[in-house]
Amino acid sequence: MSPIPPLPFLLLFLLVSAISAASHEDATRRTMEEFSGYPIHSHPSVLSLSPSSLSVDAVGLQRQIDELAAFSDTPKPSVTRILYSEKDVLARSYIKSLMKEAALSVREDAVGNIFGRWNGYEAGLPAVATGSHIDAIPFSGKYDGVVGVLGALEAINTLKRSNFQPRRSLEVIMFTSEEPTRFGISCLGSRLLAGSEAATDALKQAVDGQNISFFDAAKSAGYNICQEDLPNVSLTKESYSAFLELHIEQGPILEEEGVSIGIVTAIAAPASIKVDFEGNGGHAGAVLMPARNDAGLAAAELALAVEKHVLASGSIDTVGTVGILELHPGAINSIPSRSHLEIDTRDIDEKRRNTVIEKIQHSASKIATDRGVKLSQFTVVNQDPPALCDESIIDAMEAASRQLNLSHKLMISRAYHDSLFMARISPMGMIFIPCYKGYSHKPEEYASMEDIANGVKVLALTLAKLSLD
Ligand SMILES: [Zn+2]
């Protein structure tokens, strides 16, 4: 016999092995689809993704959270990191270096929103994005926002370690200035990404407490921009097929109820109002009561009216707060001649919230008339619509939580986030994790590594699913 098999036998052998390999692959894929609950594409490395293969490097993530917290203008455990400050610039390069370590392609826009992209095998499709912010108000904590940026990078690294290959590209975003600390505009980066003309206009005159303009501050941080560059920051609605944000709850519900994951269904719509009353003032002893027009009492009456109108909505989701009430001249023996109020009101129902604003305005006019004071300002500073999370993203987050055997509940975000503005250009979803006593915006802010790692896993699995859709 010849040591080489005749050609027809060889061909048959090759054909049979090819068929058995293919049917083996089909069986594996079927098992994976049944197990994970979503279709697995034929791309070979996707086959290896299963919830149990997701291993989060919690120790490394905690180290990064601590390293980032060190870029602060106040001593630990507090964190203070203000937009375009020296510490903010250092923190930004830290994030960019982590993105490069994760082999992401890094891009930065004119105002310093930072993007790190992992190209999918169909890179032409709209990407799936996730991210949050790293700026921190004075004397706050190290988890607000940070968990959604460093956690997003760890989600990407986790997927890479499990040999997952995304179909759509996956992108991590670090948003510029979610906090309004320096220029009074919250969610600056995401508002501009969503094409907000109001934010673009507001930035033209914006100055900080030291009278430094937004553009000079940006320049000092290395962003050499002018007004004309701002509209270029905006992204089209075709940029992302989904946007996700992982965030600490900043409220006590998840911790109190012992639930691991909060799946956000809607973000309440904030509005803020500035009101000024003016009266004649006068000596606290000499001017008799019938002759007074007290701007301070007008403000006090309006504050109570805010509470009354909010409660009258009949919904637990309607809230209103008079967080600022200033009296001029602010002396014990002087009738207030001017008063200034700033009112924050929110609801998940925009119409209901706008009704509250109308009632507050009506009360302000009536109080001014009744008390003989002048209503010299009633300005609705911002009146953002609420955002509903996308149904299919909610389903994907719920499925991921179930696959990971994590307790979860649907909830509303009463604080707002960059997601509120990303929802204008992309289907959006948010994942909450518990935080100690609901503390946030103070040094005691804390989330356990276990809870953070759970959030990262839910994020990773949801990103994986959405990237294959
Ligand atoms: Zn935040």
From TrEMBL:
- Top-level enzyme category: hydrolase
User: Which Gene3D superfamilies did the record assign?
Assistant: 3.30.70.360, Zn peptidases
Report the transmembrane regions from the record. none
Catalytic reaction equation(s): (S)-ureidoglycolate + H2O + 2 H(+) = glyoxylate + 2 NH4(+) + CO2
Q: Which pathway is this protein engaged in?
A: Nitrogen metabolism; (S)-allantoin degradation; glyoxylate from (S)-ureidoglycolate: step 1/1
The record's keywords, sorted A to Z, are: Endoplasmic reticulum, Hydrolase, Manganese, Metal-binding, Purine metabolism, Signal
Q: Name one GO molecular function term.
A: hydrolase activity, acting on carbon-nitrogen (but not peptide) bonds, in linear amidines
Q: What is its EC number?
A: 3.5.1.116
Q: Which protein family is named in the record?
A: Belongs to the peptidase M20 family.
Described purpose of this protein according to its UniProt entry: Involved in the catabolism of purine nucleotides. The sequential activity of AAH, UGLYAH and UAH allows a complete purine breakdown without the intermediate generation of urea.
Under PANTHER family, the record lists: ALLANTOATE DEIMINASE-RELATED
In its UniProt entry, what is this protein called? Ureidoglycolate hydrolase
